[in-house]
Specification:
The relative contact order is 0.31. The chain has one domain (2-111). Helix 1 packs across helix 2. The chain has helices spanning 17-32, 76-86, and strands spanning 2-6, 11-15, 37-42, 51-56, 62-65, 92-94, 110-111. A hairpin with an 8-residue loop joins strand 3 (37-42) and strand 4 (51-56). The chain has a 4-stranded antiparallel β-sheet with strand order 5-1-2-7. The two termini are 16 Å apart. It is an alpha+beta fold.
Length: 115
């Protein structure tokens, strides 16, 4: 599991390394263009019921931390799907049912306690 830290508070969001690697490409592409968008996900079974969303903006600090030291192979089609959804009104919605086979986190990302 990797972690996405967003904002000055460094709010951590735990995401499967493979999903995070794909998100990193889509997110950095959008932010490099100066484009803001929404990232949303459903809470996992071990989290309070509901869903969360982040408004991603180029001026807000962002850090990607991966558990694995080596980068895995990326799926170009999945990145294109993420980019299309980032350009939609709803933004990127991480849906475990739409993630390619091999993504280990069936529940999608979940907020974790700040250390």
């Amino acid at each position: 599991m990797g972690t996405l830290y967003y904002g000055d508070s460094g709010t951590p969001v735990e995401i499967d390394d493979r999903a995070l690697a794909h998100l990193k490409i889509a997110i950095t592409t959008k932010l490099r263009r100066g484009e803001s968008f929404m990232l949303s996900w459903r809470h996992g079974p071990d989290q309070p019921r509901g869903r969360s969303s982040l408004w991603l903006h180029p001026a807000i600090p962002l850090r990607f931390v991966f558990q694995e030291s080596e980068a895995g192979e990326l799926d170009r089609e999945w990145i294109e799907d993420l980019m299309r959804s980032a350009n939609s009104g709803g933004g990127i919605v991480l849906d475990p049912d739409r993630m390619p086979v091999g993504v280990a986190s069936p529940a999608g990302p979940k907020p974790v306690e700040a250390a």
